[in-house]
Write a structure and sequence with these properties.
single chain; three-stranded mixed beta sheet; 271 residues; alpha+beta; 13% strand; 11 helices; three-stranded antiparallel beta sheet
């Protein structure tokens, strides 16, 4: 895997756009199908640019051929099954929390606050979205095309964008909050059992329901009718049970459901 993937996805100022198709937002299969169906001329152009700007092994130019691209797709699928799938629930929790956070900002005051909440990865200085320390200095004019924002668990330090200005504008930016670490795997069964036993009660149920749309500690306290100190205690119990995640943004702590918490809440609400 290393000899195939690292040359194609170098930590450098460029890697081919066809390797990150927009169809990937519909899942792994859709993304890999789009990679296979990329026009040969585009693949040849982008792999030549990779070899010219970054350097690449001699076999890379053969990606314009369907058979070689099929081999890369098989390697990508094997990598996904080996590395991504075992941690997929953790990744989803991060991404869900970010989506809820930005959706709340958009709902409260609109696009201005949403863009401002992308800091420190990017900075919004109307009407310019500034990206610090980006490897390629250029201006991108949207011209009414919109901007697709993609939070990434694997994007480090600085955002990245598609290199071809003719493609729909996309900005992949790093998740800048840190979720509370889960308990060690060896202790998980006993830890979860004890935490779940402590969950019973109307107050924690109310707080758990509040986090379905995300809530700060203060908001959770108001919705459950308790003090902020008491709410903080209950969110700690919920977090230890793996039902919510908490991350700090500026001076507030935002709590959101994990997939396990969402499943439990759905079961609780079922007739």
């Amino acid at each position: 895997m290393r000899s195939v993937l690292l040359p194609l996805f170098p930590r450098a100022s460029y890697f081919p756009d066809f390797l990150t198709p927009s169809a990937g937002q519909d899942g792994l299969d859709a993304g890999l199908d789009a990679l296979l169906s990329t026009p040969a001329a585009q693949v040849a152009r982008e792999t030549a640019l990779l070899a010219q700007t970054v350097g690449a092994p001699s076999w890379v130019h053969r990606l314009a051929e369907g058979e070689t691209r099929g081999q890369v797709v098989r390697v990508l699928r094997a990598y996904h099954d080996t590395v991504i799938t075992p941690l997929e629930e953790t990744f989803h929790a991060h991404l869900y929390a970010e989506r809820v956070r930005l959706s709340g900002a958009l709902f409260r005051t609109g696009i201005e606050e949403l863009l401002a909440n992308l800091a420190p990865a990017v900075r919004w200085r109307p009407p310019v979205l500034e990206i610090g320390s980006y490897p390629d200095e250029r201006d991108v004019h949207l011209d009414g095309r919109g901007l697709l924002l993609i939070p990434s668990y694997f994007c480090w330090k600085t955002p990245i964008a598609l290199a071809d200005p003719g493609l729909p504008p996309v900005l992949v930016y790093p998740l800048h909050h840190r979720l509370t670490a889960p308990p060690p795997a060896d202790d998980a069964p006993l830890h979860t059992l004890r935490a779940l036993q402590a969950l019973l009660g109307t107050t924690r149920t109310a707080i758990l329901r509040a986090t379905a749309t995300s809530a700060t500690t203060g908001e959770a306290a108001r919705r459950s009718g308790v003090t902020a100190t008491t709410a903080s205690h209950h969110t700690a119990v919920l977090r230890d049970a793996g039902l919510i995640t908490s991350h700090r943004h500026a001076n507030t702590v935002l709590h959101t459901l994990t997939p396990l918490g969402a499943a439990l809440l759905k079961q609780h609400a079922a007739p």
